[in-house]
Write a structure and sequence with these properties.
Elements lengths: L2 H31 L2 H16 L4 H5 L4 H32 L8 H20 L2 H11 L5 H8 L3 H19 L1
């Protein structure tokens, strides 16, 4: 099969999944979110995630579509709640600032968007890379202490940090 034919078959499969299961998925998400608008958004995000999947063969071979869709949507749901929690924490922190130190509204939005981008970046990192980065940046631990905590070599911690910092640099571009 040609690349164009593979792409067409993949898109047909996604279309078939959408028409057969989007209503069910929307209801599944609505029960968890108690908000039809957010359920609709996450339903669309789920199918967009499938369309942009790297493992197209895996999507084509799905035998239990609802289990697969609920897994993908469940991950998006976790991210949704984490973003809400981050936003709530950010707003609570801003409320503690004296009015003269609080950033202007346009800065607040920019800061929140940056926090969400950093959160998404951290979520994409492998667990040990993320943990090493957070232990270094938030806890101020040395690479030796991080290595001991993660039960890896200090050289591995240096590689983890290089990977995390590279991702941070890419985020700034």
């Amino acid at each position: 099969m040609t690349i164009a034919g593979e792409k067409e078959a993949f898109e047909r499969r996604i279309d078939q999944l959408y028409h057969s299961h989007s209503g069910w998925l929307r209801g599944w998400l609505r029960r968890r979110l108690d908000c039809s608008h957010s359920a609709e958004d996450l339903t669309q995000d789920t199918f967009m995630r499938l369309l942009t999947a790297r493992d197209r063969d895996g999507v084509l071979a799905v035998r239990e579509p609802r289990a697969y869709l609920s897994t993908v949507a469940g991950r998006l749901l976790v991210n949704h709640y984490r973003r809400l929690s981050l936003e709530r924490t950010y707003k609570e922190t801003l409320a503690l600032l004296p009015p003269e130190q609080a950033p202007a509204p346009e800065w607040r939005l920019a800061l929140l968007e940056t926090l969400q981008e950093v959160d998404a970046l951290l979520d994409r990192l492998p667990e040990k890379v993320r943990t090493a980065f957070l232990l270094s940046q938030l806890e101020g631990l040395t690479y030796a202490a991080i290595a001991e905590h993660l039960v890896v070599s200090e050289r591995t911690v240096k590689r983890y940090m290089a990977r995390a910092l590279e991702e941070c640099i890419l985020l700034m571009d």
